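To fix ideas, we reproduce below one chain and its tokenised fold.
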Amino acid sequence: MPPLRGTGSHPEAEHPEYAGRYRLEACLGAGGMGVVHLARSPSGLQLAVKVVHRQHAADPEFRARFRQEVAAARRVSGAFTAPVVDADPTAALPWMATLYVPGPTLSAQVKRNGPMSPAELRRLTAGLAEALRDIHRAGVIHRDLKPSNVLLPDSGPKVIDFGISRPYDSDLRTETGKLIGSPPYMAPEQFQRPREVGPAADVFALGAVLVHAATGRGPFDSGSPYLVAYQVVHDEADLTGVSADLAPLVGRCLAKDPAERPTPDEIMAALHPPSYEAAAFIPGQRAPLAVEGGRAAPVKAAPEEAAETATHVRAANGAASGSGAGTGRGARRGLVVAAALSVLVASGVWAVLARSGTPSAEVRGGGPQRPAAFVPWQTPLRSQAGSTPACAPAGASLYCVSPGYGAAALDPSHGRVLWSHPEKAPGRSGPASGGARPGGTVAGNVACAVVPGEVLRAYATATGTELWRKDLSAYLDTPFPAGDLLLTARQDGTLQALDAGTGASRWRHGVPGHHAPAYALYEEGSGVAYVFENSAQGSTTLVTALEARTGDTVWQRRLAGLLTPAGTSGGALLLTAMNEKAQTTGLVRYDPARRAETRVPLPFRMNAPETVLDGDTALLLERGGTLLAVDIRPGAAHTERWRLETAVGTTSAPVLGAGGRLYFSAADGRLLAVDTEHGTLLGQTRPRLRAGKLSHASSLPAPVVLGGSVVGSAPDGTVFAVDANDPAAW
């Protein structure tokens, strides 16, 4: 059936005539957000172009939501969605173009032809389960799966419309009084606990969609959305009319408790299709392998152990793809088995270390031994607190602190624990006493475990021996590492440098012009540390460069604006500038040699971006996932080089690596890599949630780049390493 032209009932049914370079030929439909047009690319490819309604285009919050829709749709583009071809969320009327999928929606199909046959329903079940699996693997929750958002072309079902989707780790909040979603297909937690909505909500919606496909009605039917909401939360689903072989599975999908619902993989496995219609959607299942008497055998393990082992096996498969004489799975089997065994051994060693209380009993072997070919690894540093470990390079090892667990040094080659110190019992030196969360830092060959305002413990990075400890009640914040020094700001307004090896004071004094200075940066090449202080009114910022070893002032300058030092490049200091709403609006480049400053406005206001410098480019990563590259050269004609919507709701600080790559972490445990030259996503790891739930943190530890590997940490308590040279295989 050809698409119908708009009748004019909505003002943009025929206008504008173009979205970007695409001519809009006909109206396919209209909704609350905008109008979907049929269009063609210059090569003749048919496209479906969504153009936002004019009244919404002027709403900054709506634009942000549309940017997230575009990012989510791009992220999950594949066999089970309509691939994104082009988009412009910044246009006067924002738009997005996807490949046109010829076929009716599920709602239109059922309305026209009635309920599906059992065979058709099995195929739909398997296809939608596979679609959700890929959507969730991309780190996205759809949140609005319903019959009108499912297309039925000959190639199998396609899921569309990511208008209210969000990443697992998104902290985007629903406005008070607004119901986001379609009540008959919303899960109970979407009404009761919207901040805790996870992938299981999409599984509940899948169950409701299947009931509609099988019966022509939903499992909760009423003319009032409020009554439907009550039924979803309190009443049992009506499965009358669903075939007997599928009713139990659909009922599990509609469980009130998200933890009782099956995952998409479990749905596909439960089908065990006897018919051809669904067989194409079910992948073969493989058991992990172990070695018994020199031959491979299936591993029988507890569910959590099996999941962890499978993760390592997948990681080893990816790492081994370029090694050995063979290129198929058989050629990789030896490495897979070895990786699985090393994981189980490492997990056992860590369990022993967790129960041991003395560092001397925890030291294992000598220095790190890097294998001939790097193999991805993961090591659990779990605690009841469910915190994400923070790590830093420490000589030849990797030093990590996990609140609620303690401190540990890992071999960066394979994640083996070298030594560990369990967190002390609650008291003056424990986090439970004052609510402060412990952290860590490394200075020279000394690793420090810090509870801000309470205590600092210094350990030798090589052996884990405690060297000294210091009461921090007279200090502000966490000591700042600078070579083999720890720079501190005291509550009386003075600055002090401590010898990292002994804890002795190197120097202590006030800084002219400062009353409460704060450390921001240390430049290793020059040995200069930068402190700053905003004026009471926020109209100016005093910046002072200090010689870290002596505390002598190198230069001092008062600059206009509410500024924060962000990095150095070519002898110049870069600072971010904020407005009165604490939004970052521009960059300031100050050259102390010429006493000259250059101000670079940003193309849009950003919320709390973390900034890293890559030569003459500043890379700003916003907490909401927007990554912006800005040219900071004086007199640059165009300051914006590129921008990327990563669809990550909460991010760590970004870290530069070799080969023009930028790495950062997401709150769901993913590690992402971006090409800094073109602003494209190179790869990302899978989410690693604690017990399947997202933990909301005020800040996230940044990843660590170690030669040819990148180390990330996740809220499930694991520290893991992947090959820095092949992000696409993560």
